[in-house]
Amino acid sequence: MRRMITFDEDHVRFTNRVVGIALDRARVLLHRTDDMNFWALPGGRAELLEPSPETLVREMREEIGVEVQVDRLLWVAENFFTYGPRQFHEIGFYFLMQLPVDSPLRDQPSFLGHEGDMPVYFEWHPIASLENLVLYPTFLRTGLKSIPASVVHIIHTDSKEESARP
Predict the structure, then answer these.
(1) b or e along 68-89 (b: 16 or more beta carbons within 10 Å of the residue's beta carbon)?
(2) Closest to 68 measured CA to CA, from 106, 118, 16, 17
(3) What's the domain range around 117?
(4) How many domains does the chain contain in total?
């Protein structure tokens, strides 16, 4: 049985999310689902006793059927936001990742993946235009333009207006 690192307390949810940053030709790979009116980096929740790089490999295999290579950790982010009726406290591990060199997904501007039975829409977005995109967490709109040389710890809160992700 899978045990995701998530728990709820009143109207607050804690999650441990592992995120992949795939960069290719001045673009970054983003995803969304039908219930999201915003874009996010792909990834997913870690399972108990699962190292974070393994989480990312598993999530990408499940969602897009590709074995990614996990490179270095860029950010550890304590992210606070509201989504629907809940407040979230998320600890995120943001890794550079590489799709296989011969992956046809690198040449498709958009493609469909799956989270169980739910469709997941993936698109390559130009890094230069991220500031105009509805992308969460919002620190990524500028952060992806200057990848840190070493791991950076971020404490980030999306404002009420920004984080009201219906």
Answers:
(1) bebeebbbebebbbbbeeeebe
(2) 106
(3) 6-161
(4) 1
**140 contact partners, CB below 8 Å, separation of at least 6:** 41, 130
Which neighbouring-strand residues pair with 125? 28
Dihedral, 34, 35, 39, 42 alpha carbons, nearest 10:
-80
Condensed to tens digits (0 to 9), the pLDDT of residues 58-74 reads: 999 999 999 999 999 99
Report if residue 166 sits inside a domain.
no
As a 3-state breakdown, the chain gives helix, strand, coil percent values, each rounded to 5, of 20, 50, 35
C-alpha angle 114-146-69 in degrees, rounded to nearest 5:
40
The secondary structure of residue 67, as a DSSP letter, is -
Q: What is the pLDDT of residues 105-158, one digit of tens each?
A: 999 999 999 998 999 999 999 999 999 999 999 999 999 999 999 999 999 999
Side-chain half-sphere exposure of 2, counting CA atoms within 13 A? 9
What is the domain-level CATH number for residue 28?
3.90.79.10
